[in-house]
Amino acid sequence: MKTLKFTIEINAPKEKVWTVLWADATYRKWATAFCEGTYAVSNWEEGSTIQFLTPEGEGMHSLIDEKVENEYIAFKHLNMIKDSKIVPVDAATEEWAGAMETYRLKESNGKTTLEATTDTVEEYADYLNAAFLKALHTIKKLSEE
């Protein structure tokens, strides 16, 4: 497994960027870079589960591993979701189960640097590189409005 890292500078305070990242309406806008109609179901508390879902009920079942409001959040991906049901880890998913995805915000002089990382297997690296770049540009646009 390899870790991909993405960074973008945003002309907005970190609190605004955080809200764009995790408020339902804006999350849906930038997460469409991964799949049209993507949304998240969670109480957004550290230690809680979160489901990243498509309108068809496909997606990821994850854990909010760590959270520092307006600064950092880490998701640990546990299982796939198919037909709105959590699928047990099997030989096909064992390679990436436990993969981490993180978002870190650092503010300086009214500008925020957003750093996102994601663990991936080689077969998804090109897709994730393209999707994350698109997502970060959408986050920047929404945060600077």
TrEMBL record:
Pfam families: AHSA1 (PF08327). SUPFAM superfamilies: Bet v1-like. InterPro entries: ASHA1/2-like_C (IPR013538), START-like_dom_sf (IPR023393). Residues 11-124 form the Activator of Hsp90 ATPase homologue 1/2-like C-terminal domain. It comes from the Bacteria. Belongs to the AHA1 family. This is ATPase. It comes from Flavobacterium seoulense.
